């Protein structure tokens, strides 16, 4: 936001502190970068002619200039009376205007003492009627034309350094002197709140970020915010909490876009019945021919609305987390299978042993042929015969031994 060089009143100081705290917290949100400067926005209007007129005034440098209160018609139809704060620039019929901060004064000259201009507005016409102004200023015989001319001359004194010269109406000169000598910078003469603004108007980022931060400022107590965009996008404050209700002036917020969202855009809008205060600056809209810069001479309730736009590029798709299997997969064997031997085993497995014996007469590494079939039967018969012969020999031997003993 724009920063003025003037001290803030207590209410604005407290809001300024809130803004600083919000800005610091917002840094943690990784707000996307804005593609537009954080210039103030607010009510818009059009110059539609003059209200009350005043006498011409003669300046110390020899210029003679007419004075008027100008009519500024706002978008909702409200008409505000304004004074000029740009002595060297002419006003253009049909010129479009935008509410803005004092620090963004675009006219010629320095607008060096805006708080004193505001003091003049609060203590002169039309805030005070002619009779009240005559009484407080002590200017006898004051009429409306004197009041307009003397007030405008005092404003030019603080906005453009203009001094009155000779040849002016006595009542005009007397009112000018009273206002310029008594104007002071005091808390109530500091810049009033803007009617309604969201800045910046545009911001960009990418999916997975909180894009902003946007600043809401308003003269209303609070304002509801409306978000329009794809499902899953939401408004968050500087701490990342979702915004679900009205927000106060000085609130910083962003638009949180889900990770993995497709490229897209969203809009934030706000509308409220609020006030355009006396002392608000209105400048010509950029892009049109230069026109006089104006300052409001009265306060009026208006219907205000504003908005901002965000856009984002697609972010990385989130990696899906697999859901757990209902039947756990078997754990891998603790004993790994042996890797194939580099040197093949030459010993045949049982299935590799031939079912048909080798042909008779073949060589055998173990010394002879395997014992199988009929050959095995012959060996058994021979063994039985040998056992029988042995038994007969043992019987005869025992018989002979028995005969000898007798």
Name the descriptors.
four-stranded antiparallel beta sheet, disordered N terminus, 14 strands, single chain, alpha+beta
Explain what the structure shows:
This protein is of the alpha+beta class. It contains 6 helices and 14 strands. It has a domain at 42-192 and 276-301. The strands form 3 sheets. The protein has a 6-stranded antiparallel barrel. A 4-stranded antiparallel β-sheet has the order 5-7-10-9, with helices on one face. α2 runs antiparallel to α4 (144-160) and α4 packs across α5 (170-182). The termini are far apart. Residues 1-30, 32-38, 338-387 and 389-406 have low confidence and may be disordered.
- The overall strand count is 14
Low-confidence stretches: 1-30, 32-38, 338-387, 389-406
SSE order, one letter for each helix or strand: HEEEEHHHHEEEEEEEEEEH
Alpha-carbon Rg, integer: 52 Å
Short description:
The protein has 406 residues and is α+β, with helices and mostly antiparallel strands.
Question: How would the blueprint of this fold be written?
Answer:
Layout: H1 10-27, E1 44-58, E2 64-74, E3 79-84, E4 96-100, H2 114-122, H3 130-137, H4 144-160, H5 170-182, E5 196-199, E6 202-206, E7 210-218, E8 225-228, E9 234-237, E10 251-256, E11 264-276, E12 281-284, E13 294-296, E14 300-313, H6 373-405
Parallel strand pairs: 6-14
Antiparallel strand pairs: 1-2, 1-4, 2-3, 3-13, 4-12, 5-7, 7-10, 8-11, 9-10, 11-14, 12-13
Helix pairs in contact: 2-4, 4-5
